[in-house]
Amino acid sequence: MNTSTLPVLPQRSLRGGTDLGQLITILQDQQAAKLDLVLPTSQIRFNQGLLAIADQPVDLNNDGVTDPNGLYVGTEAVDQQIADLFGIPVRYLRRMRAEHVELLDTNVNEWAARAEGKRLVRLLQGSDPEDPTTSGIVRAVLSDRYAIRDNIDTVFSVLQGLREAGLDGSNISGIDLSDNRLYLAVNVPQIAVDAKELVRGYRSPFDSRPGEELPLLNAGLVFTNSEVGRGAFEIFPRAVLQVCKNGLTRKVDGFRKIHLGGRLEEGTINWSTATVDAANEFVRQQVKDAVASFLSEGYLENLRDDLLKDAGVEVVDVVGTVEFVSKKLQYTQTEQDSILADFIKGGQVTSGGVLNAVTSVAQRIENPDRAYEVEASAIEAMQVAAKFAAV
Asked: What is the C-alpha to C-alpha distance for residues 114 and 112, in angstroms, rounded to an integer?
C-alpha cells in the first residue's frame, strides 16, 4: 500500500480540556480515519512487531478507496489483548518487543496459526511522518461480539441527554481523551451542600485558600467510554469541593453497560444506522437516569455523611500512613511523594486530608487514564488511611 497517499494520523489524546468544539473536531477526524475488520484469528500476523494486514479486498465506495492492507503500530491495549488471546504473559510480550522482535513475531504467528474463531480488529488509518512504512494504528483486537459505542456518538448522546434533563454543554467541566478511553466530567455548582466538616483545617494546595472560605460540596457526574475494549460505558456520581476543585468520584453507585452484541460477519464492518441509533438511545436514557439519581442535594448530603464516617481520624504518623496507603493502592513513588507533599501543604492532618491530597494530585497527572484511576481511588485511600491511623 502507498502510505504516502494517506492523511496524517489524527490527534489521539487530550488532557484537561474544557472546549467541546476542540474535542468534537478531534473525534470527527478520528471517525474519518477509522476502519473495522473482522478476521479469522488465524490470519493475525506480526511483522517486526507490527500487525500486518494482507490479502484484504480494497473497498470502493462513495467516500473513495479504502485499502486496509499494510502495517499497523499497536497500542498498549493491543499488547494486552494479544497477550490474553494467545496466552502469552504480557510482560514477556513487551520484553520480546523491546529486545527480540523476531521472537515476538514467531510467538504470535505460530499461536495464531493454531487458533480458531474470529476477531474484530479496529484500525486508525493514517501516515506517521516518523515511520512512513506504516499505515496507521491498530487500536484493538476484540471479540467478534463487540457492540459499537463510538466516542463521537457518546458525546452527542450525552449532550442530548443533559439537555433533556435541563443541563447543557456549559456544565462540561473536564474533557480527557486517550487511546483507551474518553472522559467527560459534568459540574453543577448550583446544586451544593455545606461540607465544612470535610474541609475543616484544609487549605487548597493550589492557592492556599482556606476551606472555611468556601465550604461547599457540589454535584456532578463523570461519563467514560472505551472504543477499544478497555471498559464499559459508565456513569458515576462525581462531587466537587469548590475550594480546590478536587473531584470525588464514587464508583460504587455508578451505571455500567458492557459492549456486547451479536456475532459479526467476516470482512470490513460498516456499522448500520439502526445499530448506532440503538446505542445512542441507550446513552441518552442513562444520562437522564443519572441526572435524576445523583444530581440532588439529598444525594450529596448522603455522600457527605458517608465520607465523614472515615474523614476525621487523626493521622499521627504522616509518612507511614502515606506509604501504607500508597502501597495498598499501588501508587507510584512519584505519586506517593506528591500525595505526601499535598497532604502537608493542605494542613489537614486527618484521613480526610489524605482524601484531599489524592484528589489534588490527580488533577496534575498528565496521563488521562492514570489521572482518572487515582481520582477514583481517593475515597478508598481515605478509608485505608483511617484504618491504619486507628491501629
From this structure: 5
